[in-house]
Amino acid sequence: EGPKTQTKFVLQKALLHPKMKPMVVINKVDRPLVREPGEVENDIFDIFATMATSDDQLEYPTLYASGKAGFCARSLEEARSDSRPTDMMALFETIRDTVPPPTPIVPDQAVLAADEKCGGFSMLVSQMDQLPGLGPTVTGKVFSGHISKGDKIIAKSLSGELVGSGK
Residue 43 belongs to what domain range? Predict the structure, then answer.
């Protein structure tokens, strides 16, 4: 089908992050051909060329997939062949090889000095519960530091109010 309006919007937002490495997955390749081979790829490159902020952003891997059939291939020929993959390993491997690992957040030295054991543990809480037998529990994304099973933590609201302490 080619790039849709939402594709252009998402790409525009993604390319604002210079460290982000783009990759293209052309989906629904198991459908009968309605466009010439290479035509969709050319359309995608044209969009990249008009939106890219650096030449590095014009270098991206292209994969061919069928979400419905559950496969992903590195070329259109491979995706359309009788011996096409039966899994999404090409997608996983491309993400692994293309996307850089996250850079750890370095906590402020004052926080590190006050929290030597957990290395400046910091977490954005997305859910707070009160579970029988456990007490207050928090779920979220760890931004810095580390914590081990059994360590006690303190959760505070945005206003700094103590919410509870738990394990």
Answer: 5-98
Cβ burial, residue 79 (10 Å; 0-12/13-18/19+)? buried
Domain C-terminal end among 98, 126, 144: 98
pLDDT given at position 167? 40
Same domain (yes/no): 40, 75 = yes
Give the residue ranges of DSSP H helices in 52-156: 76-80, 89-98, 109-114
Sign of CA dihedral 25, 31, 33, 34: negative
38-95 residue pLDDT tens: 888 999 899 888 888 788 888 999 999 999 999 999 999 999 899 999 999 999 999 9
Q: Judge whether residue 120 has pLDDT over 90.
A: no
Give the CA angle between residues 128, 131, 137 to the nearest 5°: 35
Residue 74 sits in the same domain as residue 120 = no
* Cβ count near 151 (within 10 Å): 11
- Structural domain total, the chain: 2
Same domain for 135 and 89: no
d(CA 66, CA 31): 9
Contacts of 153 (CB under 8 A, 6+ apart): 121, 123, 138, 147, 165, 166
For residues 12 and 86, membership in a common domain is answered with yes
